[in-house]
Amino acid sequence: MLTVQEAFACVMNTAVDFGIEEVSITQAHGRILRETIYADRPFPPFDRVTMDGIALNFQDYENGRTDFEIQGLQAAGFQQQKLQHNGCIEIMTGAILPDNTDTVVPYEDIFRNQNTFSIIKGIQKGQNIHQQGSDVKKGEALLYPGIKITGAEIAVLATVGKTNIRVSRQPKIALVATGDELIAINEEPKLHQLRISNVYAFQSVLNEIGVEAYIHHIKDDKETLHKEFSNLFAQYDLIICSGGVSAGKFDYIPEVLKELNVATRFHKVKQRPGKPLLFAVSDKNVPFFGLPGNPVSGFMCLHRYVLPWLYQSLQMNPVPVQMQAVLTKDVKFDKPLTYFIPVNVQVTSQGSLHANPHLTNGSGDFAILTSANAFMELDEKKDEFKAGEIYPVWFYKSL
Amino acid sequence: MLTVQEAFACVMNTAVDFGIEEVSITQAHGRILRETIYADRPFPPFDRVTMDGIALNFQDYENGRTDFEIQGLQAAGFQQQKLQHNGCIEIMTGAILPDNTDTVVPYEDIFRNQNTFSIIKGIQKGQNIHQQGSDVKKGEALLYPGIKITGAEIAVLATVGKTNIRVSRQPKIALVATGDELIAINEEPKLHQLRISNVYAFQSVLNEIGVEAYIHHIKDDKETLHKEFSNLFAQYDLIICSGGVSAGKFDYIPEVLKELNVATRFHKVKQRPGKPLLFAVSDKNVPFFGLPGNPVSGFMCLHRYVLPWLYQSLQMNPVPVQMQAVLTKDVKFDKPLTYFIPVNVQVTSQGSLHANPHLTNGSGDFAILTSANAFMELDEKKDEFKAGEIYPVWFYKSL
């Protein structure tokens, strides 16, 4: 049986590349950039006025002049004017600095007379000007492939005039619920039945990272499974299956995968929950994650294995990984398995991530997931985990 | 001029309630729940088998029997069977525990003979059964109004059969770019022109929290502004304007708001960047945020003021707020203003949030935003901020 690290390495080694597509800037949010973005001109593109007031030539001021004749007005969005001789031009924030001026004096430091402004406070040469190219030189690289596009990147893309952007193509993902005990959400369950829930949770998690996933429910019947899976492997980039991978009589999936030439890379991992995890790859390189049907197990495996595989396959750089957090209560777990415990991580007033473990009966209580926000990964080699010690956490909700 | 705390309190005091709408479970992701969700039955709903193996009556084992005749098979999704007399029933994970049995022995602890299983390892009464109602009692509250619906909550909603869910109605938001220097993204700028970018960045940020926003570009002309704003206040729940709020000659917005009976609550805040921030509320209670046109200023004000107002108005409970982080470099800022500095926050190997400040020229360099992920808020009352000290950060990207 593989360790968590071995299983994870095996999964990551099979990452693919979904390819590239072009989207418009208004659709680019959350997508992974696949080109380098360069400055099409310097930033600011011109000497930019940063205060409302007047622009003048500092030499005049240095020569002793304090009264400046108003020769014009330079507003943002208008062509550059020129100061003809001693005097000033009224200027507005965002405007281009008028030609033959080099210093901006804000309204609060001047006094208006009939046709002149008097300077009432000491000034410095070049003040209140955002110099051309002082932020970014023309041709400078601003964004690199692999970053996730958020608001800040959209501002850059718009500024350099990128209306269409090359991003990673989104994979088409199948979410398969198996289990004859499962019924539709809108049905009334008999005593021995349960409503389908895991795949809806998975769909929501995948939506959150901007990926579409389509739900299928397949009966635990070998022929049906064979036929349906054959179709799914032909149509999808990734198949995530919930249930049907433990060692039960009706857990036909390992067999069906074999018939379909889908090679099982591993089945079972030294971990709790999530021990029955199955990972396979088809002859056309379509991966199959068989997640345990238990809600907490499946949810953990999705975040610990499937999402990193997806991030890698979307060519994210860097791939988001676990963070370290401080355990706040002692935890004992004496099995030779890596233990994933639901924790509620909060930032303390001292800026530390503190992880409060939810000591459950280990039953896979789905309700526990809503009061926690991460899984803490506790090493198989240890049995006792003390308050104050630091271990990795995998978030499934933001802080 | 208001302090940041005063301005923030003023903004939060005007929070509204956008009302409630019903969405289907597949559309509920990221929405704010507005009803309490109860367990429609106990969880698990029946004594649920947690291992593949056999179910038997512990009394028989205690009486010395080690060989159990196979009397049937109980799979998940099938009606409950009954053990008739001494013996066992083969059972699968997820199945209902057969009547007249109380203990489950996994395959690894039994040995199969012709028609019987022999027990080859000590067993305990009640083992490997997830007891009915042990996680949740029928009628227990599972989710409360105000929470954000993510994957974990979707699992709960599906489990209790909620196909339609009451959530906060999404506001309709107008994003207004003003400034005659601004041109469309796909146009080639003249020297004194800039492409519209801030409102696209704002749109992306709002999309990230699941809210739609519509972009308008209005010329800096008093009559046009009056007419267009009059329409916007009639159509939208919230208006966010970029630019036009500093004291320039062509900054008509404060005047136009007055004409439209939109009461300015504050104009200018003791902060850098973002000093010109304007906040107003119409006679129909539609708020107006006038954000500075400088990209970094506007972006900061959006996250520090507008998003908390939105979270509050969406009835989120709790409203997400700032977190504390450790400053990693000395920062000096001797103006009597709260200083918002872009920082790159990372979690250290010790589980601490460390904020690495970007010491910029204060010019509003938009490119800086892509290499940082938060703003650190440095108090106006201090001038020196030392490495190792702890201050609040407002994230605009996830860690």
Automatic annotation (TrEMBL), chains A, B:
<protein>
    <recommendedName>
        <fullName>Molybdopterin molybdenumtransferase</fullName>
        <ecNumber>2.10.1.1</ecNumber>
    </recommendedName>
</protein>
<dbReference type="InterPro" id="IPR036688">
    <property type="entry name" value="MoeA_C_domain_IV_sf"/>
</dbReference>
<dbReference type="InterPro" id="IPR008284">
    <property type="entry name" value="MoCF_biosynth_CS"/>
</dbReference>
<dbReference type="InterPro" id="IPR005110">
    <property type="entry name" value="MoeA_linker/N"/>
</dbReference>
<feature type="domain" description="MoaB/Mog">
    <location>
        <begin position="174"/>
        <end position="312"/>
    </location>
</feature>
<dbReference type="Pfam" id="PF03453">
    <property type="entry name" value="MoeA_N"/>
</dbReference>
<dbReference type="InterPro" id="IPR036425">
    <property type="entry name" value="MoaB/Mog-like_dom_sf"/>
</dbReference>
<dbReference type="GO" id="GO:0006777">
    <property type="term" value="P:Mo-molybdopterin cofactor biosynthetic process"/>
</dbReference>
<dbReference type="InterPro" id="IPR036135">
    <property type="entry name" value="MoeA_linker/N_sf"/>
</dbReference>
<keyword id="KW-0460">Magnesium</keyword>
<dbReference type="GO" id="GO:0046872">
    <property type="term" value="F:metal ion binding"/>
</dbReference>
<dbReference type="GO" id="GO:0005829">
    <property type="term" value="C:cytosol"/>
</dbReference>
<dbReference type="GO" id="GO:0061599">
    <property type="term" value="F:molybdopterin molybdotransferase activity"/>
</dbReference>
<dbReference type="InterPro" id="IPR038987">
    <property type="entry name" value="MoeA-like"/>
</dbReference>
<keyword id="KW-0479">Metal-binding</keyword>
<dbReference type="InterPro" id="IPR005111">
    <property type="entry name" value="MoeA_C_domain_IV"/>
</dbReference>
<comment type="similarity">
    <text>Belongs to the MoeA family.</text>
</comment>
<comment type="pathway">
    <text>Cofactor biosynthesis; molybdopterin biosynthesis.</text>
</comment>
<comment type="function">
    <text>Catalyzes the insertion of molybdate into adenylated molybdopterin with the concomitant release of AMP.</text>
</comment>
<dbReference type="Pfam" id="PF03454">
    <property type="entry name" value="MoeA_C"/>
</dbReference>
<keyword id="KW-0501">Molybdenum cofactor biosynthesis</keyword>
<dbReference type="Pfam" id="PF00994">
    <property type="entry name" value="MoCF_biosynth"/>
</dbReference>
<keyword id="KW-0500">Molybdenum</keyword>
<dbReference type="InterPro" id="IPR001453">
    <property type="entry name" value="MoaB/Mog_dom"/>
</dbReference>
<keyword id="KW-0808">Transferase</keyword>
